Automatic annotation (TrEMBL):
The lineage of its organism: Bacteria, Bacillati, Actinomycetota, Actinomycetes, Streptosporangiales. It comes from Marinactinospora thermotolerans DSM 45154. This is DNA segregation ATPase FtsK/SpoIIIE, S-DNA-T family. The chain crosses the membrane at residues 70-92. ATP binds at residues 247-254. Keywords: ATP-binding, Membrane, Nucleotide-binding, Transmembrane, Transmembrane helix.
Length: 479
């Protein structure tokens, strides 16, 4: 080593820049020959030509027919054909407007929206929304399979990129809605990599609904209380469940309670159903006292009413035990709906701890045991947090009217509801009565609006159906 003259040469002076790595590997850039590029364009064109008659049979068929007519019979023949076709369409539209709307107008609209909205803005909106996936330096986007229109919404059926999940889309519904100029976007999963995005074109619930006609023979498992966004009636089940209605002040909780009471009032008149009302505000239910079998408006009387209900329920359960497994409403064993307006008054805000405790116990007992023996609790609440109402999970059915915060949506409608488009915290304050609900058999929240039952309607209901005598619970005492 000492004899080696170049011994110091192997050492690197500290100032010499060191390469980050000894060898650099990079993907070789190979230019695609022009013939391959041309061939790929020709294949794409052929694919479009072959698939067009399958995907758009009417459009391709009519274009082909017109071209052939023009070729065979000249301009005159073409003009006659166009006039004849237009007359047929006009006659169809006048005589059978519904089928024309469904088979022609909505299909033309769908094609128009597909080209001018979704196809045109698909790539930029999805890329900016973060739904484009990259793999080996190539970008992959979910693909539009089909666009259809209903009278109020566009439905875009989409094939997801392999390796992504519907949850990725559900997290971007706000971006998609704004990107395509819609008020909201809802995601429905049809199958693996197969989802439908629903974009409303206009708000079908913008106009208030007058009180609905009272059904002659009410079905307590499907009471008409309003309308769904898709134009279908909104039915609410009471028999065999408990319902919690949540919304900030002025959200329209009263309209849901009154619509329910209105729909079941024939059953109240014939004695097969009873409404027991707790009205701590004295401003909501007191107006229709004549409809209620029992009524309470103070903490003490409310607790007495609830405990009377619990006693009645337990008595019924004892009679049914071993004999009957389901309740059938009769005059002897009526279906009892305990309506609690502002239930937090009893469970959180009442100054007497004993009243709060007894009320909570009674509500918990009714909601956990009352379903099968014909007792239902229909409660309204402003604030769904656990500190205010820790019994909300005992209510199988919940209605989310306008809420204060985004986090409250999942508290009310269950996990994932907001991701699926139930933006109850974004409901316009000018639309009281608008809510999101889950309907039976579907995880997708549905937007609905309750009908508005005005004071005159309540007066009429009391006059025509208020057969039940008013029996204040305080007269009888708690059971
Ligand atoms: N379904 C509805 N359609 C149209 N307007 C409604 C509807 N529901 C309520 N409103 C209007 O909104 C107002 C407030 O409604 P409501 O009193 O039912 O709200 P709330 O949620 O019960 O509020 P609070 O908790 O303060 O009592 C009503 O006076 C009425 O004018």
């Amino acid at each position: 080593m000492l004899r080696n003259n170049h011994a110091g040469a192997a050492q690197t002076p500290p100032t010499l820049p060191m390469p980050a790595q000894a060898f650099r590997f990079s993907t070789p850039v190979v230019e695609t020959p022009g013939i391959f590029v041309l061939a790929s364009w020709i294949i794409r064109l052929l694919r479009v030509l072959v698939l067009a008659p399958i995907r758009f049979p009417v459009a391709v068929g009519s274009t082909a027919a017109l071209t052939t007519t023009g070729y065979l019979f000249g301009t005159v023949g073409l003009t006659v054909t166009v006039i004849a076709a237009t007359s047929v369409l006009l006659t169809w539209r006048t005589r059978w407007p519904l089928s024309f709307h469904r088979l022609v107008a909505l299909r033309v609209l769908a094609a128009w929206r597909w080209i001018t909205v979704y196809r045109r803005h698909w790539q930029p909106v999805l890329v900016v929304a973060g739904l484009a996936e990259s793999y080996q330096e190539r970008r992959y986007l979910p693909r539009i399979r089909k666009v259809t229109c209903s009278s109020w919404a566009d439905r875009v059926r989409v094939r997801l990129v392999a390796g992504t999940a519907p949850a990725d889309v559900e997290q971007r519904v706000a971006e998609l809605a704004h990107g395509f100029g819609a008020a909201s976007c809802r995601v429905t999963v049809l199958g693996p990599r197969d989802v439908v995005l629903e974009f409303p074109r206009h708000d079908t619930l913008a106009d208030p609904l007058d009180a609905l006609p009272i059904p002659r023979d009410p079905d307590l498992a499907a009471l008409p209380v309003g309308r769904r966004e898709d134009g279908e009636p909104w039915h609410l089940r009471l028999h065999g469940t408990h319902v919690l209605v949540v919304g900030v002040t002025g959200a329209g909780k009263g309209s849901v309670l009154w619509s329910v009471i209105r729909a079941m009032s024939p059953a109240v008149r014939d004695g097969t159903a009873q409404v027991w009302a707790v009205d701590p505000k004295r401003m909501e239910l007191s107006y229709g006292r004549g409809l209620f079998a029992r009524y309470a408006d103070t903490g003490e009387t409310a607790v007495a009413l609830l405990e009377t209900a619990v006693a009645g329920m337990q008595d019924r359960a004892e009679r049914y035990a071993g004999r009957q497994r389901a309740h059938v409403p009769t005059v002897d064993d009526p279906f009892v709906v305990v309506v609690l307006d502002e239930v937090a008054f009893l469970t959180a805000y009442h100054p007497d701890r004993d009243v709060r405790r007894r009320a909570e116990n009674a509500i918990a007992t009714l909601t956990s045991q009352g379903r099968s023996v014909g007792f239902c609790v229909l409660a309204a609440l402003q604030d769904p947090r656990k500190e205010v109402m820790n019994l909300r999970n005992l209510f199988p059915d919940k209605i989310a009217l306008r809420l204060d915060e985004a986090s409250q949506v999942d508290m009310v409608l269950g996990e994932g509801a907001r991701e699926r488009g139930a933006n109850a915290h974004l409901i316009d304050p000018d639309l009281p009565g608008v809510a999101f609900v889950r309907v039976e058999g579907s995880p997708i929240p549905v937007r609905v609006r309750a009908a508005y039952v005005c004071d005159d309607d309540i007066d009429t209901m009391v006059t025509e159906y208020g057969a039940a005598p008013l029996r204040p619970v305080s007269d009888e005492g708690a059971a």
